[in-house]
């Protein structure tokens, strides 16, 4: 199963074209944001639409009150709100503002993209509601597999 198969665009003019997956990247390091953005644009251009690049958990929470996304790629080690704290806030609809996180975003698959990937840490990520973990530096096949698995979960549950 490919990552685009269950996200058909229902617009009458493009009924045969799959809708691209709307992805948000969250990382406090601008170099990491640039690298991941370029990887997605180069290797996933046919299936992914990079819709949002956020440099903090707080900025991401604010954006999630406004725009729906299909997938989040999240750094773990960030100041103010870590990736674990940001994920917990998303799952608990705690936007840290007066606005609520959009309902669809509260269930969106979240993949940790981190150097903190020991088994104990991966278990913590699962417990707070992350779908998977991809180690830095990123291997394209592992990222592709994580995205495909996360999107399969969405298509069978929602």
Automatic annotation (TrEMBL):
It comes from the Eukaryota. Signal peptide: none annotated. The modification 4-aspartylphosphate is found at residue 75. GO terms for biological process: phosphorelay signal transduction system. Gene3D superfamilies: 3.40.50.2300. The keyword Hydrolase does not apply. Keywords: Phosphoprotein, Two-component regulatory system. It comes from Linnemannia elongata AG-77. The keyword Phosphoprotein applies. It holds the Pfam family Response_reg. This is Response regulatory domain-containing protein. SMART domains: REC. Residues 22-151 form the Response regulatory domain.
């Amino acid at each position: 199963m490919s990552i685009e198969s269950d996200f058909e665009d229902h617009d009458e003019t493009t009924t045969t074209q799959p809708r691209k997956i709307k992805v948000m990247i969250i990382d406090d390091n601008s170099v990491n944001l640039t690298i991941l953005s370029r990887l997605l644009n180069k290797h996933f251009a046919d299936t992914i639409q990079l819709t949002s690049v956020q440099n903090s958990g707080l900025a991401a929470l604010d954006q999630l009150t406004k725009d729906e996304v299909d997938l989040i790629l999240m750094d773990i080690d960030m100041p103010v709100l870590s990736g674990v704290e940001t994920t917990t806030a998303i799952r608990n609809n705690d936007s840290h503002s007066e606005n609520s996180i959009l309902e669809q975003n509260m269930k969106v698959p979240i993949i940790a993209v981190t150097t903190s990937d020991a088994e104990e840490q991966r278990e913590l990520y699962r417990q707070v509601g992350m779908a998977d973990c991809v180690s830095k530096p990123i291997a394209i096949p592992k990222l592709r597999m994580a995205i495909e698995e996360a999107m399969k979960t969405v298509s069978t549950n929602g």
